[in-house]
């Protein structure tokens, strides 16, 4: 077991101890003053959690000279907009854990008959609090293999929850849901997800996949351009989108991020809209 895996486990255990202390204060009559039975232990656990989180981030950070970006095919077709891109900052999501140093989020834009692309449902301050996933053009969009590869992880079965793109729903995600998912581990953060072995020590992760949409399972080989799943809204998400990144190992808990570039697209910056044409399965070779 690596240091990174040990730290991830220690952080989850710390969360569980903290939750147990809080619950114990309300449902039991512990002997002694509250500061000694709850506040002091909780303070110690919080300090431990901050320390472990810092060590975890340092352990997951890439070391030495950055690797050259690995060129792969885009994982989607159609019109998309990038969010949280490594073209703007690294780490793109504010953390190195789960191998997502160079991760990118992309959302689909719906085109009408006139060729215009109306914006997806906008963020709302109060109402509607949530929206159904079908209101977002990304939901159900095909996900494609970015290279000839072998499937090493294929997780399915988690539900696609409603959107979190209002102030009340986002607060719930940030303050409660996101922390609970962190305690439960990487599967609950990434939701349904796929990991492909591209060869040469490079792995591609697709997160927030639609429940029941997996077209492959662990051990399968896939060709570049092959449909492998569909975009969903499972895991730690605000709306249906694809979270994509490359990493140096098959386990996100124990991997470091690897920079990427999409063939014909590059690395779109946050807010940048790009279009990928349809391509036939297998018409793009394996990544180098």
Task: Itemize the secondary structure elements and their pairings.
Blueprint: H1 3-27, H2 34-60, E1 70-72, E2 78-83, E3 104-108, E4 142-144, E5 149-155, H3 167-184, H4 186-190, E6 193-199, E7 202-207, E8 221-222, E9 227-230, E10 242-247, E11 257-258, E12 260-262, E13 273-276
Parallel strand pairs: 1-12
Antiparallel strand pairs: 2-3, 2-13, 3-10, 4-9, 5-6, 5-8, 6-7, 7-10, 10-11
Helix pairs in contact: 1-2
Summarize the structure.
The protein is of the alpha+beta class and 288 residues long. The chain has two domains: 3-60; 70-276, Glucose Permease (Domain IIA). It is 26% helix and 20% strand.
Structure description:
This protein has helices at 3-27, 34-60, 167-184, 186-190; strands at 70-72, 78-83, 104-108, 142-144, 149-155, 193-199, 202-207, 221-222, 227-230, 242-247, 257-258, 260-262, 273-276. The protein has 288 residues and is α+β, with helices and mostly antiparallel strands. Residues 284-288 have low confidence and may be disordered. The chain is built from 4 helices and 13 strands. It has 2 domains: 3-60; 70-276, Glucose Permease (Domain IIA) (Distorted Sandwich), CATH 2.70.70. Strands 2, 3, 5, 6, 7, 8, 10, 11 and 13 form a 9-stranded antiparallel sheet that branches. A two-stranded parallel ribbon has the order 1-12.
